[in-house]
Amino acid sequence: MARTQKYKKIEKRFASNVQNGFVSFLKTIRNSFVRIFKVFDSKLTIMIVPHSQSKVINFQTNVFALSLGIILAVGVAASFLYLNKKAVSSSLEISALMAQNRETLASLDELRDENTNLMQAAKRFQASFSSSLALLGLDRSSNVSQASVGSSDLSSLFSSNDAAGGAYRETADIRSLATYLEDAVQPIEQIGKMLENQSSLFKEIPNIWPVSNPNVHISMMFGPNIHPITGQWYIHKGVDFSTWRSGDPIMATAYGQVVTVGYDNSFGIYVVIRHKHGMYTRYAHMSATRVTKGEYVSQGQIIGNIGNTGITTGPHLHYEVHIGSDVVDPSKYINVKLSK
């Protein structure tokens, strides 16, 4: 019983100490707030004394109002500095965007110039392509529908330039050109098939250069010329090919049969080949031959070498084309330009 009373006394003492401590803590906090309030509520008198004899201006405030005013002033100043920095950054970004925009506009102008050049080239292509189709007897309208032709023909493309404008004009031009080129694929494929079917005919017609050396050039054309030895005008019945040296190979210009391998005081060593369709070719002033009479040769086959035999002023190949008994200009049958 005595021990129980002892424990109760200890418990009451502990509770009393906790209560007293808590009350003391609350009093301390209250006193702190009271002191702080007294500090902020302290009265201040601010006097403005002018240099002149004007009346002194004074007004009263307290520490709280003064502190709040200072905080507001600092906040306004900080906000001003932040917004000013953002404005400077935005101005720099706008300047960069304007410079980029100028570059884009310059690139767009260049693109428009290139588009104009493309349209001009397309117009020339259309004229040449239509002319080629007409010569070959190919009717483009039979290969594509009338609606497709009406929408993709380049004539409608050029007339539509007045109706469109800006970037839409360039886009419409490119789209129309692409459609036109797609429609042109089929006629071109027909031309390719036609050329493939006629490849055997081309091999039977003398239509290549008889000399393939990179240095080859035409030293005398067919027709009226001044004779290099007599100095008189005469009719040159062939085309002279020269590489400035002897020994370069000479090729048969078409499939055929060798009918003559001989020597002539004027032509020197020469070869005559008979081709189909009544055509003959003569190769003169050769230094040596590589074929025999009666031999069949193919187009591009080596038949001899350039020389200086016969009446010449230097090594070259004199090349002739005959149709029956007539001598014709070989350049009409050569499928490449007669100039290098």
Describe the model.
The chain is an alpha+beta fold. The chain has helices at about 1-40, 65-135, 145-150, 155-160, 165-195, 200-205; strands spanning about 45-50, 55-60, 215-220, 225, 235, 240, 250, 255-265, 270-275, 280-290, 295, 300-305, 315-325, 325-330. The strands form three sheets. Strands 3, 6, 7, 8, 9, 10, 11, 12, 13 and 14 form a ten-stranded antiparallel sheet that branches. A two-stranded antiparallel ribbon has the order 1-2. A hairpin with a 4-residue loop joins strand 9 and strand 10 (about 280-290). Helix 2 (about 65-135) packs parallel to helix 5 (about 165-195) and helix 3 (about 145-150) packs across helix 5 (about 165-195). It is rod-shaped.
Question: Which descriptors apply to this entry?
Answer:
single chain, 340 residues, alpha+beta, ten-stranded antiparallel sheet, two-stranded antiparallel ribbon, 14 strands, 48% helix, rod-shaped, disordered C terminus
Shape: rod-shaped
Mean pLDDT: 82
Rg over CA atoms: 53 Å
Strand content: 15-25%
Write the H/E string, N to C: HEEHHHHHEEEEEEEEEEEE
Q: Spans with pLDDT under 50 lasting ≥5 residues?
A: 142-152, 336-340
Number of helices: 6
Structural class: alpha+beta
Distance between the termini: 137 Å
Please give the number of β-strands.
Answer: 14
Helix content estimate: 40-55%
Oligomer: single chain
What composes the largest sheet? 10 strands, antiparallel
